[in-house]
Amino acid sequence: QVQLVESGGGLVQAGGSLRLSCAASISIFSFNAMGWIRQAPGRQRELVARITGGGSTNYADSVKGRFTISRDNALNTVYLQMNSLKPEDTAVYYCTADRAMTKYWGQGTQVTVSS
Fold this sequence. Notes:
By secondary structure, the protein is an all-beta fold. It is about 0% helix and about 55% strand. It is built from no helices and eleven strands. The strands form two sheets. Strands 2, 4, 5, 6, 9, 10 and 11 form a seven-stranded mixed β-sheet that branches. It has a four-stranded antiparallel β-sheet with strand order 1-3-8-7, with no helix packed on it. The chain is globular, with a radius of gyration of 13 Å. The termini are far apart.
């Protein structure tokens, strides 16, 4: 049973920072890639950042230069460091993991950025 547990969301003022964590119940070497997807009310779901097993990363244009995805293989954890946060970053952030033809999802963590 694969479980992804996010933490680190919360309320922050514009310009502030947050770090999200995603702890997997199995070795993250099992996954082809892991990432963060966000969903805001009234907006389309957006892939924010993704990291492959080999460490390659890609980001949505809206977060490039502000967000950084990283992984700690020993802790089976993926992180999303979010700096210079903007009100439009407000959303529920979901950790995802891809293995074969299956995408696993965490329960989501709320990030709210006040202006």
